[in-house]
Design goal:
By secondary structure, the chain is an all-alpha fold. Helices cover 62% and strands 0% of the residues. The relative contact order is 0.14. The model has no long low-confidence stretch (mean pLDDT 90).
Length: 72
Amino acid sequence: MTQLIRAFNNGGHTKALAIHNKLDALNKALFADTNPIPIKTAMNLMGFDMGGPRLPPSEMTQEHREELKTLC
């Protein structure tokens, strides 16, 4: 994210847009479910043992999990 802001602030709008577009799918996946479910799922997929969500949240749907898995 820092690169995006730095590029934009330095007038590199095309570069900033390219970075934004690259992150767009990840941003959508991270907000596909109620937080903190997607964040904990992403961290678990990257190898960090975050455990499951505490009640009342439940596990992320399999569909959203698969989408997030391709981005982690």
